[in-house]
Write a structure and sequence with these properties.
The chain is an alpha/beta fold. Helices cover 52% and strands 7% of the residues. The protein is built from 31 helices and twelve strands. Strands 1-5-3-4-2 form a five-stranded mixed β-sheet. Strands 9, 10, 11 and 12 form a four-stranded mixed β-sheet that branches. The chain is extended, with a radius of gyration of 37 Å. It starts with 5 loop residues before the first strand and ends with a helix.
Length: 679
């Protein structure tokens, strides 16, 4: 039992030996002392009366607070007669139990609560970090650190609040104040084995920015980067200009790829190559070329002079080697040098680079990479340009009723060269992601199709030693995104969100695996079928064109009857901003002739991209035949049919890009009817 708390002079209070807390911490004691000096004693002490000493009490709970008050009195911060509230116990035997209860039942504040509390003191009450540090007896650096944590990107802070990540993980993300960079790295690592690896998080954050001496930065230039809205993270006083960080990586990536793509076209024409792809780095990724066949030439035959010299060198070398077989023979230094020089000369005659003739080059695939100084360079290895899959070619020939003249015109167009723009690596990956996202929505909307697809992938991989030509991981785990920082709000993305939210998750909350399994099996057939479609669809890889697997994805799109033009239209964000101005104008000419190109040729790049978005989205009042071609036009990389070479548009030719007609002609499969009903 207790009596109401009373005020007692601190000099009449002593610590009781039954106080359960025996250990202390000097730093924590200093913080407590500063808090009492700044805020007063917020919680009363608990004590028992001292026998034969009226008005004196032994404190059984609150010994650390009492010590702090005594120190403040000794320093003169509090007056000698300072009184504190004491809750008096009537039964002395309760002292140890009350002391234990007070210390045992205390719940430490979470780091997230600390962060929000410090932030509110500053933002709501207008306190300074120095003032807060002084009043709580802590370092100002600690307060600033908690404020940095309070300003973490929303998903990371929510994970900290929910105890899904540790304080150390949160601190690793807080090493940069760029919430965009935090979010991108969080999305990239959250489902990986490295999600709790502090070093990997810091490494990813550091790698997510560019130094000023990075090849991409040298290619673009600081002024161009800043003019496009790029930000530079301040370097410290002891850093050089090359140490500064360019933190808006997506801006630098897009500027570098646009500039590199423009210069790659000039290199392609100069080298006489059939196709050039750009890689904004010094090395070509392994997965980019692993399915390609290197192009090898033949060395030119030796001339008569070279043959004669080769024979002379070989005879002289044989003579020197014959002398060296004698055990008593000791070669002079100049003889050893002569031998080495002859070997080197022979190597230059015999081992010569293979020569690739112009005809081979005209159909070859090359890569333009960035040198260490930011200069575009032609990669030394050329490849045989990939040809469309046989199944794609056969499907594309189905229903071709054109005459021989039309075929001749197409061949002439191919021979004359494709005037459309060079597609950069990033744009190809963006288009591949959006195209596969669109395909995934259709797979998820057709459970019967998804079941057949999933069964095939599983049995095919079990029946073969290795299978690398099917772009799927049937573990129902979503593959890593090609571009973590690119998340366009497309119609397919919105539809996927609706599909995901509509799934019946009533079985998820059971703790034991058997219980979850039984609950899942008890779902209605349509609910389980929806989960099957969702699980299979999310495994599909985004595969840029030209890599193994694109033919199979295209085949699936044709069987599903995906009307790409109805679901996706190119916008400035998703396409036109990534092209050069001449590239956009070439597309205008492709659908509207030279007159349409001239009509927009005076526009600036930004305005031209916006105009292209409106034109190809059907939002421009223009000649009906041009509008019809514009709203049906698609980049080849977004098609599920083979690329088409558009000739000079005329008023009577309005079917060059009509994907709907092509799909309807090919959509004679069992899955089309059910898809139409689901859609």
């Amino acid at each position: 039992m207790t009596k109401p708390s009373i005020l007692v002079p601190a000099i009449h209070l002593t610590k009781s030996p039954v106080n359960v807390r025996k250990r202390t911490d000097l730093r924590a004691d200093a913080e407590l002392e500063a808090s009492i000096a700044g805020h007063g004693l917020i919680q009363n002490l608990v004590g028992v009366p001292v026998s034969r000493k009226k008005g004196h009490y032994r404190i059984t709970a609150g010994g650390r607070r009492l010590d702090a008050i005594h120190r403040l009195i000794e320093k003169g911060t509090l007056p000698p007669d300072h009184e504190v509230p004491v809750l008096v116990l009537t039964n002395r035997k309760d002292g140890r139990e009350i002391s234990l209860a007070e210390n045992y039942d205390r719940l430490q504040m979470s780091p997230a609560e600390d962060c929000l509390a410090f932030r509110d003191l500053i933002e709501v009450e207008g306190r300074s970090t120095a003032e807060i540090a002084k009043r709580f007896g802590i370092e100002e650096r600690f307060v600033i650190g908690r404020l940095r944590l309070a300003n973490l990107a929303q998903p990371i802070f929510e994970a900290l609040e929910a105890d899904e990540i540790t304080l150390d993980v949160a601190k690793a993300y807080a090493t940069t104040a760029d919430t965009g960079r935090q979010t991108a790295v969080w999305e990239a690592l959250r489902n990986s084995y490295s999600r709790d690896n502090v070093n990997e998080i810091r490494r990813a954050l550091n790698g997510y920015s560019y130094r000023a001496n990075d090849p991409k930065a040298l290619l673009v230039g600081r002024d161009t980067y800043i003019a496009a809205g790029g930000r530079v993270e301040d370097a410290d006083l002891f850093s050089t200009a090359a140490d500064e960080r360019w933190i808006d990586t997506h801006i630098l990536d897009e500027l570098a790829e646009a500039k590199l793509a423009a210069q790659a076209e000039a290199i392609r024409e100069r080298e006489g190559l059939g196709e050039v792809r750009v890689v904004t780095g010094a090395r070509i990724p392994y997965m980019e070329t692993y399915a390609l066949q290197p192009l090898t030439g033949a060395a030119e035959p030796l001339t008569q002079e070279q043959e004669a010299r080769k024979q002379e060198i070989e005879e002289e070398l044989a003579e020197i080697e014959l002398f060296s077989e004698d055990e008593d023979y000791e070669p002079e230094e100049d003889e050893e040098q002569r031998y080495a020089a002859l070997q080197a000369e022979l190597t230059t005659i015999v081992e010569r680079d293979a020569v690739i003739d112009p005809e081979q080059k005209a159909t070859a695939l090359g890569y333009v990479v960035l040198g260490e100084d930011g200069t575009p360079q032609m990669h030394h290895q050329l490849y045989v340009a990939p040809v469309p899959d046989e199944e794609s070619s056969e499907a594309d020939n189905d229903g071709d009723d054109g005459d021989d003249e039309a075929g001749d015109e197409t061949q002439d167009s191919i021979a004359a060269g494709d005037a459309r723009p060079v597609i950069s690596q990033r744009l190809r990956e963006m288009l591949a992601m959006m195209k596969t996202e669109l395909l995934a929505v259709h797979v998820a909307s057709d459970p019967a199709f998804a079941l057949d697809l999933g069964t095939f992938i599983m049995v095919d991989r079990e029946s073969r030693l290795a299978s690398f030509d099917i772009p799927s991981d049937l573990r129902a785990s979503a593959p890593s995104r090609l571009l973590p920082d690119f998340k366009p709000a497309t119609a397919a993305a919105g539809e996927w969100t609706k599909l995901d939210e509509a799934l019946d998750r009533s079985w998820v909350n059971h703790q034991a695996v058997p219980d979850r399994y039984d609950a899942f099996c008890a779902l209605p057939d349509e609910a389980r079928a929806a989960w099957l479609g969702w699980a299979i669809a999310r495994t599909l890889h985004a595969v840029p064109d030209g890599r193994a697997g694109t033919g199979f994805l295209d085949h699936l799109g044709r069987k599903l009857g995906v009307d790409v033009a109805a679901w996706w239209r190119p916008t400035a964000l998703t396409y036109f901003d990534k092209l050069t101005k001449p590239g956009i104008l070439a597309l205008f000419e492709e659908i509207g002739g030279l007159e349409l190109r001239v009509r927009y040729s005076g526009s600036k790049k930004h305005d031209l991209a916006a105009s292209a978005e409106r034109l190809f989205g059907g939002d421009v009042i223009i000649e009906p035949e041009i509008q019809e071609r514009a709203v049906a036009w698609l980049p080849d990389q977004m098609r599920f049919t083979a690329p088409e070479i558009c000739g000079e548009p005329t008023s009577s030719d309005n079917s060059g890009n009509d994907l709907t007609d092509t799909v309807n002609a090919e959509g004679d499969n069992d899955g089309d009817e059910s898809f139409t009903q689901a859609a």
